[in-house]
Amino acid sequence: MTTADSGATPPDSGSQAPESPASAAATADPAASELRHDVDPGERVWLEEPNRDITAGLDGASAHNQTVVIEDGVVSKRLRRPMDLVRLLAALLGIAAVAALAFFATNTTSSIGEDLSAASRNLPDLLVLALNVIGGLGLLTLPVAASVDLLVRGRGRQLLDALVGLFVTVVILSAAALAIDLADATQWRVALAGTTNPADSPLIPLFGGLIAFITVARLLARPPWNIIAIVVVVSLAVFTTTAGTTALAGVVLSLLVGWTCGLLTRYVAGTPTTRPSGVLVAQTLERAGIPVAVLRARETTEVGRRYMATQVSGPALDVIVLDRDLEGAGLGQAVWRSLRLREDSGRRGFNMRRTLEQRALLSYAAAAAGAPSPRLLATREVSPDSCLLAYEEAPGHRLSDLPQADITDTVLDNIWRAIGHLRDGGIAHRRLTADNILVHPDESVDLLRLGMGSVAAGDVSLRIDLAEALCTTALLVGPERTVAAARRAVGDEVIAKALPVLQPVALSGATKRAIRKDKHLLVDIRDALIELRPDAQVEHIELERIKPRTIAMIVLGSVAVYLLLSQLAQVDLVGLFRNASWWWVAAAAAAAVATYPGAAWSLSGFVPEKLKMLPTAAAQLAGDFATLVAPPTLGAVAINLRYLQRVGVNPALATASIGVSQVAAFVVHIVLLLSFGVAAGTQSDFTFEPPRGIVLGVAAALIVIVGVALLPPTRRMLWRRVGPMLKQVGPRMLTVAQQPWKILEGVGGIALLNGGYIVCLAACVEAFGGDLNFAAIAVVYLTGSVIGQAAPTPGGLGAVEAAMAAGLTVAGLASGLAFSAVLLYRVITFWLPTIPGYFAFNALQRNGYL
Question: Do 3 and 41 form a contact (C-beta atoms < 8 A)?
Answer without folding.
Answer: no
